[in-house]
Write a structure and sequence with these properties.
Number of helices: 10
Distance between the termini: 23 Å
Number of strands: 4
Order of helices and strands: HHEEHHHHEEHHHH
Largest sheet: 2 strands, antiparallel
Helix content: 40-55%
CATH architecture of one domain: Orthogonal Bundle
Oligomer: single chain
């Protein structure tokens, strides 16, 4: 399989992966907010999703750097930003801390250093230690999150793994990416990419194509922005306990949002006169029991069974 040529732009998920090592608090909603404030202006694909070029990423990096290091408000940063065609100034380097003054105003001694014995007792007669000197830190390089770099698991799936697991072609996956339904984190896809792809395939059996799901994606992003606003005060505490608490609260809100979304759709279908599936004595619906496959149900409703997204037939 020949390697694909590198794209001249990055999606918003790839920008997050590129900058998160320098700015751990960066998020999709923050990038969208900077765009709405007029500090960045990425191009848009035909499907409406953002396309970040090299200059866009560097401009975003500059904004985040001066905001973090100089605590400048966005209004001041916007006034100092050059035009899109002008080069960005180098972020000012913070001044090094001044050396501590000696006690009582006595200058430090300039003579030769005095040897200080490490112990007042007799020298040890045991065998010398063969292990590395203790530094008080775990051996091996450690990542920013405290995870050892060596042997660290890489979550997600490669492109080939996702194609094989979902049973789709490279063009079909590219279409899902174009409409923002599946996004990469660097060179890998997130753990939810396979479930999203399979759900889109199931919808395709009813004639629902990827381009029809742009509103679903936009609604999910709006709900995510709302959740981030709710947990933002907790995240500002910058502690592992606060981050874990914010994550738990965010997922509780997301679960409630999904339940509300389903209830609103059920109410709208009832208002449209569409009958609900019968309910068993146990209180569960029979929408998935004793019913024909999706393609046959679609054909009975007047649709065309076996239709895949992108115009391909199963």
């Amino acid at each position: 399989m020949s390697a694909q040529p590198a794209r001249p732009y990055l999606g918003i998920g790839e920008v997050l992966a590129k900058l998160r090592g320098e700015f751990p608090d960066i998020s999709v909603s923050k990038i969208r907010f900077l765009e709405s404030a007029g500090l960045i202006a990425p191009a848009r694909a035909q499907s409406g999703y953002r396309k970040f070029g090299v200059d866009d990423v560097e401009r975003l990096r500059y904004i985040l750097t001066v905001q973090r290091d100089q605590y400048l408000p966005l209004r001041v940063i916007k006034e100092r930003l050059p035009g899109p065609a002008e080069p960005l100034p180098a972020p000012p380097v913070p001044a090094p801390p001044a050396p501590a003054s000696p006690p009582n105003g006595v200058p430090p001694s300039t003579g030769p250093p005095t040897a200080v014995p490490s112990s007042t007792g007799p020298p040890s007669t045991g065998p010398p230690s063969t292990g590395p000197p203790s530094t008080g830190r775990p051996a091996g390089p450690v990542l920013a999150g405290g995870q050892a770099a060596q042997g660290a698991p890489r979550p997600g799936m490669t492109r080939r793994e996702l194609l094989e697991a979902a049973g789709i072609t490279d063009d079909q996956l590219a279409e899902l990416e174009d409409f923002g339904l599946v996004r990469r984190d660097g060179r890998r896809y997130g753990p939810d990419a396979l479930e999203i792809t399979r759900t889109v395939l199931a919808l395709a059996a009813y004639g629902v194509q990827a381009r029809h799901l742009r509103g679903v994606r936009a609604a999910a992003e709006r709900e995510t922005t709302l959740i981030e606003q709710v947990v933002a005060p907790t995240l500002r505490q910058r502690s592992p306990v606060a981050r874990a608490s914010a994550g738990a609260v965010a997922r509780e809100i997301a679960d409630l949002s999904v339940r509300l979304h389903r209830a609103l759709i059920e109410a709208a279908l009832a208002e449209a006169g569409l009958p609900a599936p019968p309910v068993t004595s146990a209180g569960t619906s029979q929408d998935g029991a004793n019913q024909p496959p999706a393609g046959e149900r679609q054909a009975a409703a007047g649709g065309r069974p076996g239709r895949r997204y992108g115009g391909a037939s199963a």
